[in-house]
Amino acid sequence: MEERVLAVYPHPDDETFGKAGTIALFAKAGVPVTLICGTLGQMGRNMGKPFFATRETLYQVREKELRDACAVLGIQDLRLLGLRDKTLEFEDPEKLADMVHDVIRDVRPTIVMTYYPDHGVHPDHDALSAATVLAVKRVPKSDRPTLYCSPVTDKPREEFGAPDVVKDVSEVLDTKLAAYRAHRSQSEAMLARREQQMAADPEYRKQAEEYMRAEAFWFYPVSDDE
Prior knowledge:
By secondary structure, the protein is α/β, with parallel strands linked by helices. Helices cover about 45% and strands about 15% of the residues. It starts with a strand and ends in a 7-residue tail after the last strand.
């Protein structure tokens, strides 16, 4: 079966931080990648350093950054759900699942990427990933995509065991970094701090480079009995 990828994340930059290399590898191999972005991150705290966004303009800035990152990564199909940032936990899970399922029926993905349910740290992460599982459960078993999930934890292997998939993204590392930089309001200060630490500490540089070159995912088991 020809691969098709659907990535489902609530905020601009979620598709990039920790997953950009994998998405870039799929796109480079000619695999169509669709991205669902639930919100425009309009309630985010980072507005650039020095500031170049305001509370009133942040959603516009982040949408442009998202579109720029998609262009860098090779994502040609972006679906914006238009939901309100930091409110997804209060949405009806079945209605969120409806939105995701509509795209699944249209795209017919073989792989769906999202956060690991209940381990996304941010309530929006957990709400949309849980809704994604509900949407995938609606797909007949014979056509059901594999869920590639990424938990947000400092020690994922200790908590989840060995990952099911580890992508070596070395060949697209420049693309990954370009996608990080595209999300300038969220990443510029972070990347500057990282570069300073890397310059000052060779061991930190080694660890940071190893971290950037590998992306890990765990399969989420979808049971019809749940």
